[in-house]
């Protein structure tokens, strides 16, 4: 009878340890959709694909559109034209996000990356750094907020500092 109990306990422990190992090394992919406000008078929208490696470290491949509005000099306030057609850029890039904070249903990552794009006339380069905190919801969905600093090369504004909020949708289980 003791050998039956020992085999049962061994089987239970093996199954439990296997599930823990899978949870620690999930290698999941997520689609990220976010929008943010940047200093001074900036707005951006980001679409990204994340690949999670061990311990919530991630690689992110992103596409971002940036819009900077200003007051219309003729009207003296913000108009449709001065909002949508003042200064626009887009860029593609990659970021590595090592995990620096883990909790029960949340984790935080540093965000270090770079990319390139255009202001619709010339090439611009981009270096991005920041912090992203993610809250895991039921079904693998996530909510996140990000504090970021973009350093732009050959653009009208050298620094873009701001916050972004968004959702992460699971692509794989």
What does this structure look like?
With 173 residues, this protein is of the alpha+beta class. The protein has one domain (24-170): Porin (Beta Barrel). Helices cover 16% and strands 57% of the residues. The chain has two helices and nine strands; from the N terminus they run H-E-E-E-H-E-E-E-E-E-E. It has helices spanning 2-24, 80-84; strands at residues 29-39, 42-52, 58-68, 87-97, 99-102, 106-118, 123-136, 142-153, 159-170. It has an eight-stranded antiparallel beta barrel with strand order 1-2-3-4-6-7-8-9. A hairpin with a 5-residue loop joins strand 7 (123-136) and strand 8 (142-153). The longest helix has 23 residues, at 2-24. Residues 14-25 have low confidence and may be disordered.
> How many helices in DSSP terms?
2
Main-sheet strand order equals 1-2-3-4-6-7-8-9
Radius of gyration: 22 Å
Number of strands: 9
Give the CATH topology. Answer: Porin
Average residue-wise pLDDT: 85
């Amino acid at each position: 009878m003791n050998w039956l109990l020992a085999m049962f306990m061994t089987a239970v422990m093996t199954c439990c340890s296997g599930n823990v190992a899978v949870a620690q090394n999930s290698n999941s992919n997520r689609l990220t959709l976010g929008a943010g406000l940047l200093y001074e008078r900036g707005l951006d929208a980001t679409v990204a694909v994340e690949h999670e490696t061990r311990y919530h470290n991630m690689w992110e491949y992103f596409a971002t559109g940036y819009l900077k509005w200003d007051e219309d000099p003729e009207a003296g306030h913000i108009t449709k034209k001065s909002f949508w057609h003042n200064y626009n850029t887009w860029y593609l890039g990659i970021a590595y996000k090592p995990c620096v904070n883990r909790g029960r249903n949340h984790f935080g990552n540093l965000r270090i990356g770079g990319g390139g794009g255009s202001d619709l006339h010339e090439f611009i380069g981009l270096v991005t750094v920041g912090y992203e905190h993610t809250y895991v919801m039921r079904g693998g969905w996530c909510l996140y907020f990000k504090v970021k600093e973009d350093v732009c090369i050959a653009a009208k504004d050298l620094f873009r500092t701001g916050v972004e909020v968004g959702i992460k949708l699971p692509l794989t289980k």
